[in-house]
Fold this protein.
Amino acid sequence: QLKNARVLFMQSDGGLTPVHKFSGSKAILSGPAGGVVGYAMTTFNKETKQPVIGFDMGGTSTDVSRYDGEYDHVFESTTAGITIQAPQLDINTVAAGGGSRLFFRSGLFVVGPESAGAHPGPSCYSKGGPLA
């Protein structure tokens, strides 16, 4: 049924590749890269050329990036102590998101890495969950 269908996979560098050239190691950060391509294509104004900042908060992490008419690439990044060496869009990830639990330790607020999860979820769900 999909005999003549063109199948493309998103890569960490923001590009698409056909299935026969796909490599999982080049797609580790394809989700965040897709977010950058999406906001770049929908929010950047080519006339004013004003840079756009992307802020993508998930449950346990937040991705921040910038687009000024060209995609910024890096070839190595480290997130939560894990180093990835592959062409990728320049996206900075913070290991704290909307569901990251908030604690008070030694007189300081500390966020994550523990997650409030979906059930009962963070306290804002009003289901008796923890502060997030």
